[in-house]
Amino acid sequence: MKKLLVMVALGAAVVSAAAVAQGGGQFMQRDQTRQEAQQRSDMMFQMLDANHDGTVTRAEADQALAQFQASRGAENGGRGGRLQAMITQAFGTSQSLTLQQFEAQSLARFDAADLNHDGVVTAAERQQARAQQPAPQAAAPPQTTPAKPQ
Length: 150
Known about the structure:
- It is a single chain.
- The protein has helices at residues 2-21, 34-48, 58-72, 79-91, 99-113, 123-132, and strands at residues 32-33, 55-57, 96-98, 120-121.
- The chain has 150 residues and is mostly helical.
- The strands form 2 sheets. Strands 1-4 form a two-stranded antiparallel sheet.
- Residues 4-8, 17-28 and 137-142 have low confidence and may be disordered.
C-alpha cells in the first residue's frame, strides 16, 4: 500500500512538473501561491524520504524513480525522464538533502518564476520564465590535439 501511495503521489508530482515544463501546451497549471509551492515541495520530500529520517538520499530518490518507471511501463511517455532530470537537478553533486535544502531549492525556482514578485505564479509568468531560461547545451566534443607530422 505504501508503494502504491508513493507511486500515485510521484505520478501527480510528475504531471504537475510536466504542466510547468510544457511550453504553451494544451494544459497549463493553475495559478500557484508561494505557500502552495512550499506545501507541494514538503509533500514531495515526504514521499521521497522512504525511511522518514528527515533526509532524502540519492538512493531513496532513485528507488522512487525506479518504482515510478516500473509502474508506468512502456506508456511512460517521457515523464520518467522529467522526474530523473528533477532529481538530478535537486541533488547536484550531493548524496542527500534535508527538508530545508529541498524546500529552499523549490522556493528559489518559484521565486524565479514569480516575475512580478507578488507571491503568485500565473500561467503567463510560467510561460515567460520558460522563455527566459537558456536552452540546454549539448556537451562539447572532447578537444584533441593534432599529431605532429614526423
